[in-house]
Design brief:
mainly beta, four-stranded antiparallel sheet, globular
Length: about 130
Amino acid sequence: EVQLVESGGGLVQTGGSLRLSCAASGFTFAFDDYAIGWFRQAPGKEREGVSCINNSKGKTHYADSVKGRFTISSDKAKNTVYLQMNNLKPEDTAVYYCAADDEYYYCSEYGQLNEYDDWGKGTLVTVSS
């Protein structure tokens, strides 16, 4: 059974930084075979894709709203994907979820699909103004 556990959320002031982690376990295939995405959902809003990584093809994608401020990376030895978030804004306030799918094409340089197979429970990021 795949488990994804997010951590690193918290309260930060505008302009501050946080690094989110997504620790994965229970993968059937190699870690690099998976597309792993970060999504967020703010109160009263729909879930939106933030970023994703596809290690097998060396691809990453960022939503326009976070491009230049967020960086996704992965540590194969730790089965962990990170989301470094810099210059945070109040509009970044949301619950952040990571998701994984064994179909690598769920993440490409053009975007990511939404229907990942497995999801974490989320971590709350609050940016105060």
